# Entry
Amino acid sequence: MVKILASGDIHGDTSLANALAERAEKENVDLVVLCGDLTYGEQSTEGIIGPFVKKGKKVVLIPGNHETIATAEFLAQQYDAVNLHGYSIKIGDVGLFGAGGANIGLFQLEEQEIYDLLKNSHEKIKDAKTRIMVTHVHPTETKMEKFTKICPGSTGVKKAIDTFKPDILLCSHVHEAEGIEETIGNTKVINVGKSGKIIEL
# Structure
């Protein structure tokens, strides 16, 4: 079994990062997944990944629309974490693949680029027993879209769900939709939010 703690939209809140790290330790998770917006507009990179590493937890992360790929890469390298933006990782028989950024904000990507990143990263874990897609932005045609007028869903993410049919999509981005879970085809879509979600596989 693989146990994951997934969270997003920490936005530089070190007390939140510490609380999540405590929870990761208490729940004895195998992996921490951070779905972007780790910082607030590229500020406050200190004390976000460190608390998890101090607890001996493996961290994978993606950039949101509040930090660049370079910042996500810097944090990953500094703390021996994995930047999943356009990449994949296997833990046991669970494969994770991802793409960060969003269609609005400081770090914007075109929809086709989001899809292409997901396509390339999925290729390496396509044979995994359980496949988890990690994005910052939510897909179009979902309940999550109804919680916001300013954060459109991503057609690139929706196309990736329709094409690759991952078992789970972990995302964040829309703060008001925190904790919302829904199903697209056979894919369970979870807005993990800043409070975080424990996923057992």
